[in-house]
Amino acid sequence: MARKIVITSGKGGVGKTTVCANLGAQLAMMGFRVVLLDVDIGLNNLDVVAGIENRIVYDIVDVIENKCRPRQALVQYDGIPSLYILPSAHSYNVGKVTGENIKQVIANLGVTFDYILIDCPAGIELGFHRAVFGASEAIVVTTPHISAIRDADKVVSILNSYNMTGINLIVNRVRGDLIAGGEMIDAASISEMLRLKLIGVIPDDDGIARFSSLGGAVTAREAKVNQAYAVLAHNLANGTDFVFDCTEQYRGIWGNIKRSLKRRLN
Amino acid sequence: MEYGTPNSVGMARLKQVLINDKHFNPERLNAILSNDAHKLLNNYFELAPEQVAADIAFDEHGNYIIRIKAVSNRVKIMGILP
Questions:
Q1: 3.40.50.1100, 3.90.650.10, 3.40.50.300, 3.30.70.20: CATH of A3-265
Q2: CB A193 to CB B14 under 8 A?
Q3: Average pLDDT over residues A210-223
Q4: What is the interface pTM, i.e. ipTM, of the complex?
Q5: Is the Cβ–Cβ distance between A164 and A72 less than 8 Å?
Q6: Do B10 and A193 touch (CB under 8 A)?
Q7: Where are the domains of chain A?
Q8: Distance from CA of residue B78 to its chain's centroid?
Q9: What confidence score (pLDDT) does residue A158 get?
Q10: Where are the domains of chain B?
Q11: Contact in structure between A119 and A38 (CB atoms under 8 Å)
């Protein structure tokens, strides 16, 4: 039985798609069969983030319209055999696609996969409900900024009206230097405010920008981010609540020096 | 003007924003809650809808404090199964 997890946020630009791709890659590297489902129809980007944009033949709308079987539309991720992506349509005519359609696609994929990660569009309009409808769990992604946390709170209120078995929290783009200096809201406080279980803290890292340009999941070169995603995947798979410590290198005397240098360089 | 570290000021602002949002989100919640409370209490008491009032407030942590006030001068006679 697959775990059907929608990755949502409310606010756009917090890193839902990036989290979806990298979490999927980590789960697949743990041995799970994972499919990433792009439900952001018309504003699809999961294909670009995953670096498979040139290999798409069919998309989710083709599956819904019975132009192909779900398996034919799946694109295998390079280098991780158990990770697949079901891309979204890039046409704007999406009015015909309903939540029930998406739910049916998810049910079909559930037979083959252990994890179905659903990349949800930003906002709380029709696209959001379409994505959430077929999910049984949710992960809310936010950044440590008031505007993003506020939108996450609104999304949680809506998610509570769905019959979810669990709603967890990921705080993305965390700056360890700013938290250590008391200049940024820390992930534990956000978790407490939103009353959600914190399963992931992802540091803000230049490696993400590199990964975004190249396409594909983060690699061992981006060790810090990679480690944070590994902790996140472990928490999700095993129900643990380890937290990646972004502030570790900015504590103590050397940490203070590092922070000062970083501030001066910026 | 709030003073403190950016973190503590941010937390205070966030808390205020979330509490305010909760104030304005459930616009019709009071009326719906009063209506439902009346339906329930009317099984046991003689009550007109306007004799039931619901009030939703918030504490400093953003938790809902729900108060329902109903005034009745007559208890309905309960039927007993033979």
A1: 3.40.50.300
A2: yes
A3: 66
A4: 0.74
A5: no
A6: no
A7: 3-265
A8: 29
A9: 87
A10: 6-70
A11: yes
- Tell me which residue has tokens 């983030």: A49
d(CA B7, CA B15): 12
Nearest CA among A133, A155, A134, A145 for reference residue A10:
A155
Residue B45 CB coordination number (10 Å): 17
> Which residue has better confidence, A14 or A44?
A14
Q: Which residue of A has its CA nearest to B62?
A: A193
More confident residue, A91 or A185: A185
How far away is chain B from the Cα of A183, in angstroms, using its nearest Cα? 5
Chain B residues with CB under 8 Å of A185 CB are 7, 10-11, 14
**Pick from B5, B11, B13: which is nearest to A189 by CB?**
B11
Point out the residues of chain B with pLDDT beneath 50: none
**Chain B residues inside the 8 Å CB shell of A187:** none
CB-based contact B11 A149, cutoff 8 Å: no
Tell me the backbone φ, ψ of residue A263, rounded to 5 degrees: -65, -45
Give the per-residue pLDDT at A254. 82
Q: Do B10 and A157 touch (CB under 8 A)?
A: no
pLDDT of residue B63: 73
Nearest CA to CA, how far is B10 from chain A (Å)? 7
Q: How confident is the model at residue A76 (pLDDT cuts 50, 70, 90)?
A: very high
CA distance A163 to A97: 22
**pTM higher than 0.95:** no
Residue B14 and residue A183: Cβ atoms within 8 Å?
A: no
Mean pLDDT for chain A? 88
Residue A149 parent element (H or E): helix A146-159
Local confidence band at A7 (pLDDT 50, 70, 90 cut-offs): very high
CB contact under 8 A, A182 and B7: yes
| DSSP string for A15-79 | SHHHHHHHHHHHHHHTT--EEEEE--TTS--HHHHHT-GGG-S--HHHHHTTSS-HHHH-EEPTT
At residue A37, does pLDDT exceed 70? yes
Quick one: tokens of A227?
């480690």
